Amino acid sequence: MDLQSRLLMAAIRKYFHFSMELEPGSFNYPKVIPSQPIPLYIHIPFCESLCPFCSFHRIKIDRQLATAYFDALSVEVDRLHQLGFAFNEVYVGGGTPTTMPAELVALLCKLQRFWSLNDITVETNPNHLTTEILAPLKQAGVTRLSVGVQSLQDKTLQHIGRYDAYGSGDSIIARLSEVRGQFKTFNVDMIFNLPGQTESDMTSDVALLKKLAVDQISYYPLMPALPNKRKPDPDFTDVSFGKEKYLYQLITAQLSPDYKKSSVWCFNKKPQLSDEYLISSKQYLGIGSGSISLIGNRFLATTFDIQQYIRQTNAGAFPWQAVQNLSAWQLRHYTLMTRLFGLNIPADTDNLPGLSLRLMRGLGAVHRRGDAYHLTQKGQYWWLILMREFFMGVNGYRRQLRYLNAEPELEID
Predict the structure, then answer these.
(1) How far, in Å, CA of 373 to CA of 367, rounded?
(2) Alpha helices (H) along 84-197
(3) Tally of CB atoms within 10 A around 55
(4) What does the pLDDT look like over 270-281, one tens digit per residue?
């Protein structure tokens, strides 16, 4: 990583460390419902196996608890419908949402009855790429299936704890090949800059994915968890970023011209749904334990205690546990960050932070072409750093929430 990138990463990390602080409390539903349909995110925190690099909210599956959890999600969906929320797309993440396929399908069918949805994304793992699981998902309206692969190299899969759980690289390739073409968009999630990952590993993985000709490849940088008692493995906390830029450039060069970017780390075979709903959405609602919402100028975080989520939801309360109020300055920069994550932003977008844009243009990260600002090649890597640090900051939200105790109930206007 060059000096400019290192300085940028240090500054961004410091900013997110100090700015993403949560105010604890418990909160009611907002009194002001968004006037336009917004995306809905649903978090399913259950996995059959826990990967050491993952800092998302997840636990090993307890099927009795998971059944009660899906029942609570259904209660919350009913309440959102009664309150007048409207949604235009749904993203179901985790965890592994397909650990309870029948319950997931029932929930998706309820969503389809309540709202006209343009797209439904569901995340899964390679061992769930079976007809028994996928056919009902497709019937329930899933348009984008996203499978977490991370690597196709056996030694890497063993190192990150996925070989025994999800199979060898060859078996994963065979499963991907069988599923290709069954959904409007079939996305494969990969990770680069994993410990021990070599240039040869990357080149081989990209070549295999190109040969499969999957619709979409999301190549995420490793987003290490900050050291804490729950994350003792130094391989996934003390990560070197020395090769990150080179590996990113290697992936970009190797996937071109067959794939075009729709975000700094999402590559498409043809124009497709992007990998991140926050690129074009000013607001979104998250439901389920460990989810995060942005309503108005407020980030709202839901309890990490799954039993508490179930109790509160069934009792008629919205289980938000903490909030962060964004200033007008923060909201303008959040808009700039997320929209440019999608590579460009219209020049007439309301309330753009002019000084920051001029600075980025002066540094060669952004240029204006026609009626929009676009990321340059340099800017794309800088935005990859920015979004990596942002999501690591969100992981900081998660870390805070694990230890927060709810305070007396507050209302959100």
Answers:
(1) 6
(2) 101-114, 131-139, 154-159, 163-166, 169-179
(3) 23
(4) 776 666 677 878
